[in-house]
Amino acid sequence: LFSLFSVYAANLLPVTVYDAVPVLRGSRAAVDIVATVLFSLCFLSGMTPKEERPFRRLSGWLLAMAALLTAISLAVVGNFGAALTDRLSRPFFMLVRNLVFFGSVERVEALVVTFWIFPEFLRVALLLFSAQRCLRLALGGRAPEYRGERPLDLRGGRWVIPLCGAAAILLGLLLAPTPAGLERWSEELVPLMNQTAALVPLPLVYAVGKIKKRL
After folding, report:
1. Cα separations (Å) of 61 from 51, 127, 177?
2. What residues contact residue 58 under an 8 Å CB cut-off, 6+ apart?
3. 3-state SS string for the chain
4. pTM higher than 0.90, yes or no?
């Protein structure tokens, strides 16, 4: 919000049809973030009281996330310009580092980084919960709701919980040992895999569920 006051309109305009392909190519990361709502809707269905149109309730979150990402892009490109933004490795944090609140409060990037990282822990927890739930259902168990089991109780298919956690830790340690590898996975491979999953298997699963009258 504070950075929007220093946006230069000349850095944003003009926009022509020739910008469509670069904009679509650059939108992969944003689509990957917003798709979290779609995956949550698919993998966590049945966790709350049944609704007639659950997507309508979640569509508000989709719009809010899209508006926030648009505002961030507007602030970054509007302050730095497209050419400089493309050369910066982390333009958002460069923008935050130069912010001054109320003419006196400086060096707020540590607070912003905290706000940035904390939701990632929540998302990892959400994905791990979804993974163990889907695996337990796939192995023939009932809907694996929490019924007061102790943390070390591995009955009823709960042994997949530490298995999913160990797999996540192992991938985190071995998947991208170099900064270049991490950048390639986070900016290219992971968004591509998530978008492929969202466009191919999930609609197919939804169609099968409708045909079998399970949805």
Report:
1. 16, 18, 34
2. 37, 40, 41
3. CCHHHHCCHHHCCCCCHHHHHHHHHHCHHHHHHHHHHHHHHHHCCCCCCCCCCHHHHHHHHHHHHHHHHHHHHHHHHHHHCHHHHHHCCCHHHHHHHCCCECCCECCCHHHHHHHHHHHHHHHHHHHHHHHHHHHHHHCCCCCCCCCCCCCCCCCCCCCHHHHHHHHHHHHHHHCCCCHHHHHHHHHHHHHHHHHHHHHCHHHHHHHHHHHCCCC
4. no
- Which amino acid, one-letter code, is at 109? E
- Residues 56-105 pLDDT 10s: 777 788 888 889 889 998 999 999 988 888 888 788 888 887 776 655 55
> How far apart (Å, rounded) are the C-alpha atoms in residues 13 and 36?
31
